[in-house]
Write a structure and sequence with these properties.
By secondary structure, the chain is of the alpha/beta class. The protein has two domains: about 150 residues, Murein tetrapeptidase LD-carboxypeptidase, N-terminal domain (Rossmann fold, 3-Layer(aba) Sandwich); about 130 residues, LD-carboxypeptidase A C-terminal domain-like (Glucose Oxidase, domain 1), CATH 3.50.30. It contains nine helices and 14 strands. The strands form two sheets. The chain has an eight-stranded mixed β-sheet. Strands 2-1-3-4-5-12 form a six-stranded mixed β-sheet, with helices on both faces. α8 runs parallel beside α9. It starts with 11 loop residues before the first strand and ends in a 9-residue tail after the last strand. The C terminus is likely disordered.
Length: about 300
């Protein structure tokens, strides 16, 4: 298991759009706020592109090219995805994984539709990625200021000192340790039967979603269960379920029989605040404190 590399003032980070087109004003604000951390920000050439399919930020090959160029740039330490939406999964067979592996370890940052990239980067590269807020989203690019908890938590995660995240309920008691995986439920279910088929054996899985009725959450969890994705899972951390009605009866019904600790109500995913979690690193669920904590290497260790 690789360890994340902390980002430091003076580092160069890139912003690209592998999914939808960001709002230009929000993107400008988000870039300025990253720059306020002392980061040098380079923006992909096609970050604001559009094409015939209005939900995509340009053609697949162009979006993949921006992502790969940013990742393979030796000056770039981390790549922020500008926003989610839809389209990241369309890029997975267009990326030159060997070239990206040769570029060395870096950090990918994003959430929602970016789950497809988190999952594929873990599979192909084996490097940790940061599930967190994106520059053109409201939590970072709000008109007046970033959402305070989101902003503080992101900085702590980037600098290698992630805060434990406390939920508001326990669905199944216990304590578990394992590598963190997961993200958006709909994206994970959509990858069943592909080269990137989800498997959470020996892991703690994070799940969240937005705008899904409980019966649809049931259907996606049932698909993952039938596909064997949860076989050997060690624990489950449930993030936000924005505009999903009351998802907890179905989450309890589908997940409690797995017999592993489950914490819920974590402010991870959609909504506000939007806290950051390092995927691909060792994490701990403790239901006594109703928390998910990530374990990061000593921040004084040299890169």
């Amino acid at each position: 298991m690789s360890e994340p590399l902390p980002i430091r003032p003076g580092d160069t980070v890139a912003v690209v759009s592998p999914s939808g087109t960001p709002d230009a004003i929000r993107l400008k604000r988000g870039v300025e706020r990253l720059e306020s951390l002392g980061l040098k920000v380079v923006v992909g050439a096609h970050v604001l592109d559009r094409q015939g399919l209005a939900y995509l930020a340009g053609p697949d090959a162009v979006r993949a090219g921006d992502l790969q160029s940013a990742w393979c740039d030796p000056a770039v330490t981390a790549v922020f995805c500008s926003r989610g939406g839809y389209g990241a999964a369309r890029l997975l067979d267009l990326l030159d994984w060997a070239a990206m592996r040769a570029a060395g370890p870096k950090t990918l940052i994003g959430s929602s539709d970016i789950t497809a990239l988190h999952h594929a980067f873990s599979f192909e590269l084996g490097w940790p990625t940061l599930h967190g807020p994106m520059p053109a989203c409201e939590t970072l690019a709000g008109e007046r200021r970033p959402e305070p908890r989101t902003w503080d938590n992101l900085q702590a995660a980037l600098y290698g000192k992630p805060h434990p995240i406390v939920g508001d309920r326990v669905l199944a008691p216990g304590r578990a340790q394992g590598v963190l995986a997961g993200g958006n439920l709909a994206l994970l279910a959509s990858m069943c039967g592909t080269r990137y088929h989800p498997t959470f054996e020996g892991k703690i899985v994070l799940l969240e979603d937005i705008g899904e009725d409980p019966y649809r959450i049931d259907r996606m969890l049932t698909q993952l269960l039938h596909a064997g994705a949860f076989r050997g899972v060690r624990g489950i951390a449930l993030g936000s379920w924005v505009d999903c009605g009351d998802p907890y009866p179905v989450l309890l019904d589908r997940l409690a029989p797995l017999g592993v600790p489950i914490v819920a109500g974590l402010a991870v995913g959609h909504g506000s605040p939007q806290l950051s979690v390092w995927l691909g690193t060792l994490g701990v669920i403790d239901t006594e404190s109703c928390s998910l904590a990530g374990r990061f290497r000593d921040e004084d260790q040299a890169r």
